[in-house]
Structure formats: structure tokens, C-alpha cells
Amino acid sequence: MSQHFRSDIRGTEVVEMFPERVKNKTFVLSDLSKCGLAATTADALAYGGAGTIIFLGHSQPELQPVIDHINRKHPQAKIIFITANTGSLASMHAAAATIKELAVPIDGIVGFSRVMAAAWEVTADGIESHFQKNYLCHFVLVNQLLDTMPAGSRVVVMTTSIRREVPAPTWTDVNFSVSLVEGPWVEFFWK
């Protein structure tokens, strides 16, 4: 079955097209913020009848407005918050272990990128912050949860755009030290 999506399609319209993929399913949304695409995705999944939505974020107080909104609007959706810091791979391992303790199949994982053109820095793990927080942390999470994902489960990682005017990344320098010369926007578009 082929679907054609308009550029202005709403998340609620998408879940209406795939009710069997959402209703009573369990989703993990990683690195949420209180507004924007992540919050809208959570709301659309709840609208579609998701059974459980597991939020991974820096702090529950930051996400409490989103949790309260979904609880009010879609009381059938169970919301679980787990603290996870994308700047720490150990934190992502711990979050995955906590999710596994729930003993539920994970039907979908959506990872969101929150770092954009920030100053160059390395995380406590010694990895360039954009790369770790926007990609590597989600890779670790998904790999830790693969055995909880039944056939047909899906993973989506929201990424940045690819731009022709940005030089190709140098894969021998995953910490992007060249970006110290090129600037944060080149570094951002590489990722």
C-alpha cells in the first residue's frame, strides 16, 4: 500500500492512516523537550491510541507540561518518564536497563536531536557533543533494546539536513576537530 504525504500533513493524520501500527502499542521517545516536534509526536501517538509512551529526557519537571497535556487529552495512554542524559552513554545504558525491567515489547523508538550548532565540546565520554547527543546515544539505546522489539517494530532518528555547500565529513576524525576551524554550522551540517 503506497501512501503519499503532503508537506503540510499533521501527525494525527499519519496515525489515522496506520491505526494498527499505533493502537495499544508501546513507544520510546528519546531526548524529548517540552515543545516542538518531540512533543507533537508524543501527542499524535497518544491521539492514535498508543498504549504506553515512554519518555526519555533530562528532567521530568521540564516535560511535565507535555505529560499533563497528554494525560488530560488522551487518558488512555500510559506515560512513563525515565531520566536519560544523552551526554552520557552510561545514562543511556541505564535508561535501556530500566525500560527492559518494564518487560513490555517496544513497538517503536523515536530519537530526537536537540543540539544544533552549539560551540564545540566533548562529552564526559570524550566524544564530540553533537555526534554523541544527536546520534550515538540513540544508537546505544536502540542496540540495548533490540531484544525487546518484536518483528515489525520501527526506529526513527530525527536528523539534520544534508547540504551541498558543506564539505564531506572526515570519518577519521569523529570528534570533528576540523570544525574548530570551519565553525559550528559546518560541524552541525556534517551530522
UniProtKB/TrEMBL annotation:
Lineage per the UniProt record: Eukaryota, Fungi, Dikarya, Ascomycota, Pezizomycotina
PANTHER family in alphabetical order: RETINOL DEHYDROGENASE, SHORT-CHAIN DEHYDROGENASE_REDUCTASE FAMILY PROTEIN
Keywords from the UniProt entry: NADP, Oxidoreductase
Entry's Gene Ontology molecular function annotations: oxidoreductase activity
Stated name of the protein: Ketoreductase (KR) domain-containing protein
Alphabetized InterPro entries for the sequence: NAD(P)-bd_dom_sf, SDR_fam
Similarity field: Belongs to the short-chain dehydrogenases/reductases (SDR) family.
Coiled-coil residue windows: none
Keyword NADP listed: yes
Keyword field contains Transferase: no
